[in-house]
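Final report, results section. Input specification for complex C-07:
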Amino acid sequence: MQAMAQEETTETKPETTRRSMRILVIEDDREAASWLIRGLAESGHVADHAADGEEGLNLAMEGVHDVLIVDRMLPKLDGLSIVRSLREAGIKTPALILSALGDVDERVKGLRAGGDDYLGKPYAFAELLARVEGLGRRKADQPQETRLRAADLEIDLLTRNVTRLGRPIVLQPREFKLLEYLVRNAGHIVTRTMLLENVWDYHFDPQTNVIDVHISRLRSKIDKGFEEPILQTVRGAGYMIRAT
Amino acid sequence: MQLNYKILQTSTFRLSALYLLLFAISVAALLGYIYLNTTVLLERQTDDTIRAEVQGLADQYRLRGLAGIIETIQRRSREDTGSIYLLADPNNKAVAGNLDTLPNQATTDSEWIEFALDVKHGGLVEQHEARAFHADLTGNYELVVGRDVEPLRQFAGIIRGTVYWALGIALVLGLGGGLLMSRNFLRRVDAITEASRSIMDGNMAGRMPVSGSGDELDRLALALNAMLEQIERLMAGMKEVSSNVAHDLKTPLTRIKANVESALRSGNDEEYREALEKTVEESDRLLQTFNALLSITRAESGQSRSGLEPLDARAILDDVAELYEPMAEELGGGLVVEADGELPVMADRQLLAQALNNLIDNALKYGAKEGEAPQITVSGRVDGDKVVIAVGDRGDGISEQDREHVVERFVRLDSSRSRPGNGLGLSLVSGVMKLHGGSLQLGDNHPGLLAKLVLPLHRAAS
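Structure output:
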């Protein structure tokens, strides 16, 4: 019943449910930084900027930011050291590490140093935004939940039952994982790369639209026979499951 | 002067000098030992005999008196044994024996004396060395008993001479040989130095001289030559790659430029938008190509070897197959996995998955005859000490002469040119296999292509 009621209230166009965040951008390349800050502002966030590692660490130490965007290579203090120092100081602000060194080894180093996500340069802004917002949400998440809900869709993580409007939906294990990830990020865009990394744990570019095929399979199972599609394609960015 | 100094500095010369020193010491020790053991021993024996004889004669004198000792001395003197006897009376006059006069040195009782002895040899008189024991008897008689020690002394002299000569010859030969060897060595090292200098000056075709004797310098030269060849091959590869890169990047860049320029000329918002979208698409493709190139370089240079860990390739195989299966079905075809049991390998999960990903991607793109749907078989099995993961399709395959060629960067067969791709997929697979100590083998699937990843089997240490 509750699901029905929710559906009535939101039935218009896909709009991500955004919360304004305060983001610290530590990036020495002025042009890249201003491009980032403009993009973040346009997306409704507030961005601070530090042009070198020391300044960045000082600002981040204040602990007032929701997410840090840290360039891997910086003057005075490199990105990994900043994150490491923050973690040692007990500051847990989620950090996205940006690097031109996009390979797997570097990624592992970045995460080991205390980074929460790693993005190789160059990247699409949509990709960065989706990840930054994902990190910002992570803080607010309640990971103890065993039931996830998005609009009229419900997932029971223990029994692995999926229902929509009370009607059971049978999914393959991978489809379940895919749906779980989408629902955890309901109302937010997830990119293909994010899906590939989080659902398949692949950190390379498969060069083909394999993800799209999986999404369309999932869509045929969860949207077929229902009036309102819940799984939406966001052009040029990725996919999103409606939250409400 | 300069050359001599250089020779003295060579390791060969230093080694031979050291060897020479050791050799000389051992020669000296050996001959010294022989010298001591022969001459000194012989001399001591002589002394013992003389002393025994003196004792015997003194006993005769005591028991049988003057007549007894005279008789014995005269008898012994007659025998030509090289022995010397003399019995002198209190006036120092010879009473018996084969010595004419008492030697001047005989002054005190019980004393060893050495003196010159005239020996008649045919018509000649030779002076020999003699060694004798001088003893005073009761009644102021004096007794001298000795030996002609000339042969003994000569023998000792010969041995001493031998020692000096041996040491001298060893020194001369050793030093000379050392110098010669060093000069020979130096000449060959100089030749190698000269060759490397010429290569550094840009003569890339230059090689180290090989004498053909198969010695260590030859082995060094051969190893250096092999290295130079590898470098030359890599450089040729680099040159080819950079010209390929230039070509393959120029084409999309030219397209972008043309698009943007024509949109700018049009002055139409709709066209601006379209051109920008196309630009994003094209630059994405360019970035993909760049990333693929970087991955290949990384795999080939072996940078990620540290990332290898023992894992079951079966899981990777199942995962990647699962990733692609819906796509094969979407195209109306199918993807079947044929494998059972574990496939233990030392691998980098990401890279191995990417390699398999590329093979399946290729099979989906090119693995079906015109108008047919792709039927792909992914198999994995343990074969002896190898793990073989194979992707088979039912397409046109790759002809034998193209198989080696197709692994190179940017190579695309004519049949595939019309389809999207950058010609780097198999290069990456090959690079990844190199990193894993395995190989990519392309074969015939009757019909179609059978691409095999052959990896060393990893046996867990038990």
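The longest helix of chain A spans residues 125-140. The domain at 143-241 of chain A is CATH 1.10.10.10 (Arc Repressor Mutant, subunit A). This concludes the modelling results for the funded period.
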